[in-house]
Write a structure and sequence with these properties.
alpha+beta, 4 helices, 6 strands, 175 residues
Length: 175
């Protein structure tokens, strides 16, 4: 029973590594992206290959310059664990809203194939390969939305996004 419980805890920790990567990419939070990779990691994003730490800097700059907003959503996360090594496959749908007129949305269906390891009690990515399964691009119509959008809180990049304000409020209330 103890081994099964530890495996569940490890899988949750690994899922949170994957989710933190997505938040880091969408908020252009370089430190958060960097935190999911080991120092000696390798990332193959197709158009970019190198260390995870260098990728963190590259991708936050690229997304900030080229896009108004992005959303990375992971599903179907499968994790196999063998001691302090794990392999995961997660499907990702990434939507990138380009700067410029007309506003275009690029959407990609891909998979993150990750080798992770636990070092000093913490799971991080050692090696990532992004497998592109499909992609599309379309012009967005801001005038004919299915619901009124004027009252929504809007997302921002790091550090102005509402999630960082929420986290600050949680820290203040726990003191």
């Amino acid at each position: 029973m103890q081994n099964e419980l530890q495996e569940l805890l490890d899988k949750q920790a690994i899922y949170e590594v994957l989710a933190r990567y997505c938040r880091g990419a969408d908020r252009c939070d370089e430190a958060l992206i960097r935190s999911v990779y080991h120092e000696d990691s390798y990332d193959n994003h197709g158009y970019w290959q190198g260390s995870g730490n260098e990728f963190a800097s590259f991708v936050t700059n690229r997304l900030t310059e080229a896009n108004l907003a992005t959303t990375h959503s992971i599903t179907n996360v499968l994790v196999d664990i063998d001691g302090d090594i794990a392999w995961s496959e997660s499907q990702v749908v990434a939507t990138l809203i380009r700067r410029g007129t007309p506003t275009r949305a690029d959407t990609m269906g891909a998979r993150y194939l990750d080798r992770l390891s636990r070092r000093n009690g913490e799971w991080k990515i050692e090696e990532r390969t992004v497998v592109l399964d499909w992609n599309k691009s379309e012009v967005l119509d801001h005038e004919n939305t299915p619901i009124p959008i004027h009252g929504f809180t809007r997302g921002e990049r790091h550090p102005g996004d509402p999630v960082y304000k929420l986290k600050q409020g949680l820290k203040r209330s726990s003191n």
